[in-house]
Every structure is written in structure tokens, then in C-alpha cells.
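If you are new to this repository, start here. Below is one unmodified record pulled from the training split, so you can see the exact layout before writing a loader.
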Amino acid sequence: MQTFTKQTLRIFWQHAKKYPWHVFGISAGVVGHLLLNNYNPILFKKVVDILSVGSAKTNLEPVFKIITLMFFVSLTRMIFARSYNFLNNFFQPRVMADLNNTCFNYLQKHSYAFFNNSFVGSLVTKVKRYERAFEQIADQLIFELGKTFLETLIILVVIFLQNTTMGLILLTWAILYIIFSYYYSLYKLPYDIKRAAADTQVTAQLADSITNNVNIKTFSNFTFEENRFAKTSHTQFKLRKKSWDLGTIGDIIQAFSMIVVHFILLYLALKFWQNDIITLGTIVLLETYLFRLFDKLWNVGKNIRVIYEAMADANEMTEILIKPLEVTDVPNAQKLAVKSGAIEFKNVSFGYHKDQDVLNNFDLAIKPGERVALIGPSGGGKSTIIKLLLRFFDLNGGEILIDGQDIYKTQQDSLRAQLSLVPQDPILFHRSLIENIRYAQPEAKDSEVVKAAKLAHAHEFISSFPDGYNTLVGERGVKLSGGERQRVAIARAILKDAPILVLDEATSSLDSESEQFIQDALKSLMQGRTTIVVAHRLSTIMQMDRIVVIDGGKIVEQGKHEELLKIREGLYQRLWEIQAGGFTAA
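And here is the target side for that same chain:
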């Protein structure tokens, strides 16, 4: 846990120090409130001392003066408290919002590979825990442990001034109590973490079984799932009981120490009073302070545990925030300017793993406006070529040029602005259809969105919805069929109107009739654009200017459809015969 704690606190402080006057105001308010809060018992001590003298009954004016002062002290104390509360009502939510923005911005800058290796739900949880951790730590340091430390210090000073012996006893006990609370909290923390992990496991298994309720019914496995869940619940029970038992044991030790020190101090106070060393008011002051101190120190162990648990939660996100970005712009990177759209892969080498290259010294030149299809067996490197062109990964060697410009020396955003991608499995935002299509050109007019949808043959199904273009598509577009999602993605590409078009299995989810409509739309979209098409359906790429056959990360054949069919025992011919034969047999 200590690995990222310093970095977490540094990040929190960097965000908090943007509001120095709020930090100062809150701190001053807390100090003022505590000083006045502990001044009233001193005033009340004076009242008791005056009343303990028999002559006080004939003259209560001094008492009334003190009570009046107590009234104004309480009023001022209340003003201090409300003031720092109002300041904190801005400070903490503002810093939490800033932390959210920092997490969002840095997360989005992480690479394609980072998101492939991370669970979406886990990342969302880490971000929410991060802002929550700041709130918990700030609350504990300012309003719990901070107040406890200051109030303990004030009380010890006052008791020392009243009687040195009682002050020394209380100071010794307070130090021992805080040391015990701290180390006992550290001892208990691993059990708290295991208990929290067990809680998470129960929640995860419950969610998994509810999601797969149909499977449980279909396979008649209720008893199996019941036993599996019961086993997880029993583990949770044992860890929860252990954690709670340790908490109870700690409470017993703390309570016993409080009873003992209370008895000792009260006994000494009475003896000192008997010998006229202290007044009756001092005993009242001591009792008031002791109950206040016990109340504050009782939760010290819990406060420490909360800080450690919050820090553990925050450290998960800190690890991501200090993790270097895998794909970054080089210093002084220039914007990519595309005039003709020529693309060249020169001696490109790349692998997802260190000892396994997908591409090795790969060369491919695409002329401006040329329509090139990439085909070949699965795992041959076709999709990898697309990802490298979009610069989702950095190369191991070689370079990729667009109009002679090395894309790894240009700004990523400017590169992707020149590319329109229609992926195999389009993922949509949980927003309206018009927002999803307009995402390619946020400034586009409604009429331009509708025009793009018509060209993509998406207008027909969109118009059939009761809310039309304002229809929400659901998370990741689950309310639409695969073919409908792809038509929305094609409409988005049409609206973007980029000089380079990339189609990665863009028609794979369409039925034959829809595919025919889309092919017509794509033909017009390809006009005047450099186009790269990745497809398994060979029927969709017959009209390409050039077909490049890739196997094992190398180009094994290339040419037009008719030319490739003439290569005896060629890979393209074999793939064509498999598909055409299947059609004939059907």
C-alpha cells in the first residue's frame, strides 16, 4: 500500500492548493471554533468557583457577567463553525470535481492496449473511489483527527496550568492511547481489507448469477449455484466476524484504559481539593474535559482505519495516473496535412508481445485515391495494419507515411481527423441517434445528419422509431441490431468526409439486401478518397483497384480480382473457391 501513498497525497495536495484561501479559511475556522469551544468550560469553572463561596447568593452580578460572556463566546463559536462549513461546501466538491476531470482526461489519453487490458466497470469504480477517497481523507484530517489533535492539545495545556501532576498523567495516557490505537489499527487493517474483498466477491457472484439466471434455469443448476454462493457467503461471514471481533477487542482495551485514567484523575482531584490545592471548579473543568477528550479519542482508531482504507482505494487510481502513456506525441509534433492521401508502410515491424512479431519488415504503398482491399486468413495482420495506421500502437521499427509525413511525428488528433473508420463491431454512445451520427462532425446541421443517414440507408429504420432521430440507442448501442449499428457507423463516416476511408469488415453484419444498398453508398463514398477495406467476404471487394493478400504478416499476393484468380494454387484462389463453392453448394 505504501507504494503509491506519497504520490496519492501529492496529487491530492496539488489539486487542493489551487484554493489556498479556502484551505486557510477552513483551517482558521476550525482553530477558532475549537479555542472558543474549550474556553466555555473555563468560564463555567469560574461560575462554579464563585457559587461555591457562600457569599455568592447575595451578589450574582459576577456570575451573570460570566454567563453573558459565555453566550457571546457560544455565538462566535457558532459563526466560526458555520463559516468553515460554508467554505468547505465549495472546497471539497470543487476539488473532487477537479480530480474527476483529471482522471477522465488522463484515462482517455491512455492507449488502445490499456483499455483492452482493463475492465470498464473497474476503471469507473476506481475513478469514483478516487474522489470519494479525497473526501474521506480531507474529512478525517480536518474534522476528525485534526480536531482531535488540536482539542487534545488545548485540554492538556489547560489541565497542566491547573495542576502539573494531573497534566502529566493525562499526557502520558493520551500518548499511550494514540500509539495503541495507531498500531492496533494497522494490525486490524489486513483483516478489514480481506473482509472488503469478500464483500466484493459476494456482490460479484450475486450479480453474475442474476445475469445468468436463464442459464441456471436451462441447465437446472440451482442447487450447484446455491451451494457455490453459500460457500462464498460463509467465507464472508468468517472474515466479517474476525474483523468485527478485533474491533470489539480494541474497544474493550480502550474503554478499560479510559475507566482507569478517569478513576485515577478523579481520585487525585478530590485529594487535591481536600488539601486546597485545586478548587471545586477545577474538578468540574476536569470532568468536562475528560468526557470531551474520551469522546474524541474513542474514534481515533476508526479514523486511522478510514484514512488507510481510503488511501488503499485511491492508490489504485494513482497507479493509473502515474503510469506513463504508451502512445504520446513527440515534442513539437506538427499537424498532419493531407493533400492527396498517399499511404506508405516502410519496413514496418510490430508485435503485441516482445518475442512474437505480427509484421516484420512489412512494405505497402497505396496511391492517392486508390481503393485497396486487405484479405487473408484470420490472424494474418490485416486488422493490425489498420490499428497501426490509426496509431493505436507505436511501431517496433520502420515508419508509416501519409503524403510523405511520418505519422509518428504528427499530432495523434490531427492524424485521426483525416481518417474515417467504419469498424467491424461499431460501439455507440448511450445517446440519441442524431448525437451518435453527429459525433463525426459536432457542428453539423440536422439536415446534413439526415443526408448522411439516407446515404447509409439508415434513414429508413430510424424513421420507423417513434422518436426518430431522438431515439436513445442504449449502452454500446444494444437497442439496435448489428446491421443497424453498422449503418449508423457508415453514416458517421459519410458525415466526417475525411480524405482517407478505412472499412474494417464494414458490411459483415448486414443481410444480403442491406449489403447491396450499402455497397452503392460506399461506392460513392470512396470516390476521390484513398480507401482501405478489410473484408472476409470476397464478394464485397471484387471491384477494388487492388487486392492485397496477407498471410503471416507478409504480402503473399496482390492484384485485381481477375488476376489473382489466375494464380494456380494461390491463396486468393483457394479462399475464393471455398466461398464460391459454399455458395454453389447452398
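Two things worth knowing about this chain: The longest helix spans residues 222-274. Confidence is low (pLDDT under 50) at residues 582-586.
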